[in-house]
Amino acid sequence: MRELSDVETVGVVGAGTMGNGIAQVAATAGYDVVMRDIESTYVENGLEQVRSSLDRLNAKDALPADPETIRSRITGTTDLDDLASADVVVEAAVEDMEVKKGIFADLDAVVDEGVVLATNTSTLSVTEIASATDRAGAVVGLHFMNPVPVMDGVEVVVGERTADAAVDFAHGFAEALGKETWESDDKPGFVTNRILMPWINEGVRAYDEGVASKRDIDRGMKLGTNVPMGPLELADHIGLDVVLDASETLHEELGDRYQPAYLVKRKVAAGDLGKKTGEGFYQYD
Ligand SMILES: NC(=O)c1ccc[n+]([C@@H]2O[C@H](COP(=O)([O-])OP(=O)(O)OC[C@H]3O[C@@H](n4cnc5c(N)ncnc54)[C@H](O)[C@@H]3O)[C@@H](O)[C@H]2O)c1
């Protein structure tokens, strides 16, 4: 498998919200980037997003080099063959299993053997995406958060056949982009969206059922639970289509997740109430 130290060129599939953000952080970290989308207008829009994001960061003195130097490391293309030079590829196309399987089959044919192919999927099975290739051991989830240049975290998702070397590579690569990682098994929604999507949908339902105004739902969750964004504004920020695709996958795979969790009931019955009793899901002094 290709070593992290051998990586010079990063391939990115998709120039949308996530793809152009991933291209930007890779270029900022000093890598050459080839960013591919299906139409040149999408590629141009992606490059424009990168340009304005770099300008904003530059105004805050938050870049290691001048914005044009970083920007010039990214080559936009509509030609899949241009990804042949990539030493790692991150796919960030639409959240659709058939589209992603098609992309991975194409990448498998074009990109050198031993190159890690990562997917930025929010909820889809990494194992199933990998099944479209003859290199399932080199396929891993690298789930960046939105907006990519701002958010510190990346979720590494381990498929059924993902090799340990690909998992190590994924952690190291994300860290090379200045990110911190955690790991999830390949189960629907992984850690983040499995928990986040029901929270967003409940916020939307609370609004729809007249519990409070949009503003008060968002304010209540921010001020009441110390999150930076309420569910409705976060849904808008993620993209309602992305939320819907993710929610449909979770619904299909996991069913009704809104009952109180059994483990909560059992801990309460045992008197383990959290910090105040010194024992909950964690232990406290
Ligand atoms: N938006 C978020 O907050 C977020 C966060 C984490 C992960 N994700 C995941 O990242 C992926 C991309 O999401 P997004 O929000 O950037 O979507 P987006 O709609 O902004 O961008 C997707 C891009 O993929 C392109 N595309 C479609 N088919 C393609 C193909 N065959 N080859 C190359 N490009 C193709 C589209 O033209 C579009 O430009 C999805 O899997 C999504 O679930 C999104």
UniProtKB/TrEMBL annotation:
SUPFAM superfamilies: 6-phosphogluconate dehydrogenase C-terminal domain-like, NAD(P)-binding Rossmann-fold domains. Signal peptide: none annotated. NAD(+) binds at residues 14-19, 37, 95, 100, 122, 146, 276. Keywords: NAD, Oxidoreductase. This is 3-hydroxyacyl-CoA dehydrogenase family protein. It comes from Halorubrum tibetense. One of its GO terms (molecular function) is (3S)-3-hydroxyacyl-CoA dehydrogenase (NAD+) activity. PANTHER family: 3-HYDROXYACYL-COA DEHYDROGENASE FAMILY PROTEIN (PTHR48075), 3-HYDROXYBUTYRYL-COA DEHYDROGENASE (PTHR48075:SF5). It comes from the Archaea. InterPro entries: 3-OHacyl-CoA_DH, 3-OHacyl-CoA_DH_NAD-bd, 3HC_DH_C, 6-PGluconate_DH-like_C_sf, 6PGD_dom2, NAD(P)-bd_dom_sf. Residues 9-181 form the 3-hydroxyacyl-CoA dehydrogenase NAD binding domain.
